[in-house]
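A.,

Following up on our hallway conversation. Structure tokens first:
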């Protein structure tokens, strides 16, 4: 497999370029789509049903098949996969430098894997291999977000917790601890606050590491999420 990271293919990351950031995203086949591994072990039924895997370019068979192939490569030859990924990150950094931009990487574009625990070459993680590059992700794993808030994750790795219909109380606890929580709202106009916390527009860009601590990242329901009745989408 020649390349793993996607650049300039996500509408929100393209918006980030206007702010001087060049983003690379890794898209795998979510949940059990690959048939080999569940890369979203904490996904709720509502999350799986509303998944944006088939939205945008993901609706094309060639894109879907490529994401499944990447997931199978991750399972079948982890060392080679990480070597290719590291090469992609290095290329992203060079491209950003040439363009006078700042590189950043989101590894869980359509997955929720603990990349901080996956070795990369002789390093404990890919974040440690590239300490000057900002990595960031969304996660539904309460243990990962707890470790992040306790300062146990690499310093260049930022996490935002994703609320769903089955983890609302955990989400509120995370907000109370100063963490950030992404929430999908039904209305095209986001509320100014939620549970006493300010809401920032998460659709303006994908640069979550620039968000203030202790805020709600508001996302507007898109695609299948517009018809959600599970509670995954918060009604406004």
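Then the amino acids I'd put at each of the 236 positions:
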């Amino acid at each position: 497999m020649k390349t793993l990271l996607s650049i300039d293919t996500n509408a929100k990351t393209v918006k980030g370029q206007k702010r001087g950031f060049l983003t690379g995203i890794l898209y795998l086949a979510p949940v059990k789509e690959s048939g080999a591994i569940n890369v979203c072990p904490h996904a709720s039924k509502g999350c799986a049903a509303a998944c944006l895997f088939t939205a945008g370019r993901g609706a094309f068979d060639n894109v879907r098949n490529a994401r499944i192939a990447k997931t199978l490569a991750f399972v079948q030859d982890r060392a080679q996969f990480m070597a290719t990924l590291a090469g992609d990150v290095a290329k992203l950094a060079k491209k950003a430098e040439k363009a006078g931009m700042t590189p950043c990487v989101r590894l869980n574009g359509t997955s929720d894997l603990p990349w901080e625990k996956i070795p990369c070459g002789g390093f404990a993680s890919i974040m440690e291999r590239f300490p000057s590059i900002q990595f960031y992700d969304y996660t539904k794993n309460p243990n990962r977000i707890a470790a992040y808030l306790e300062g146990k994750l690499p310093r260049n790795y930022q996490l935002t917790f994703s609320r769903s219909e089955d983890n609302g109380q955990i989400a509120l606890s995370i907000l109370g601890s100063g963490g950030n929580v992404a929430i999908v709202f039904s209305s095209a106009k986001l509320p100014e606050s939620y549970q006493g916390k300010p809401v920032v527009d998460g659709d303006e860009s994908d640069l979550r590491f620039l968000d203030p601590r202790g805020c709600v990242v508001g996302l507007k329901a898109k695609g299948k999420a517009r018809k959600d009745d599970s509670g995954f989408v918060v009604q406004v």
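The chain has one domain: 5-227. Curious whether your intuition agrees with the design.

B.
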